[in-house]
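Quick illustration, no need to memorize.
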Amino acid sequence: MSEESGHELQSKQRILSAAVTLFARQGFGRTGMRELSREADVNLAMINYFFGSKKHLLLEILETFFSEYLTIARIELTADGDLAKRLEKFIIRSIRFFAERQDYLLIALTDLHHDDAEIIEYKAMWGRQMVEIMEQSVCSSTGLNLTPKLMTPLLTSMMASRFLFSPVMERIESGDAELPDIEIYAQVITNIFLQGVMKR
């Protein structure tokens, strides 16, 4: 790899990192391109060179998040074995992933862009794939009348709730010392979900 291409790769990564931080903290709509170029320490032309537009930068961030989440679903939910064990592995691994990619999670789930048809369709494309996995690997295995369009957002929301509410929960003073660690949280969600889904 040439020195120039290595430098370009570093610049592209700085742009992505800055965009993830800014979009997660203040939202896609409130982040300006000049602010992004300052944060990434690159000129504005460099952002356009790599991504073409702020929206295409957002799409790349969404691609990273949803492709990794879908890979976890494919590996854990479509594996052989007991449904409860498959769901437990999926939940635990997903929560660990959400912990590692909290800013990506915030962007994917809270920056919804309901007025942008391209973003809606892009998210729907990933959603259709997740719904298909849930239909084949979870809903049809329970013997219950569960629809994947209900189960997919329900489970994702349960798993993501710790990270979506953490800035608020950290400011609430109560008898509890702090939020439980990730492993305990994953086990609690697993138990709540499985008791609800598997109960006949």
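Residues 56-198 form a domain with the Tetracycline Repressor; domain 2 fold (CATH 1.10.357.10).
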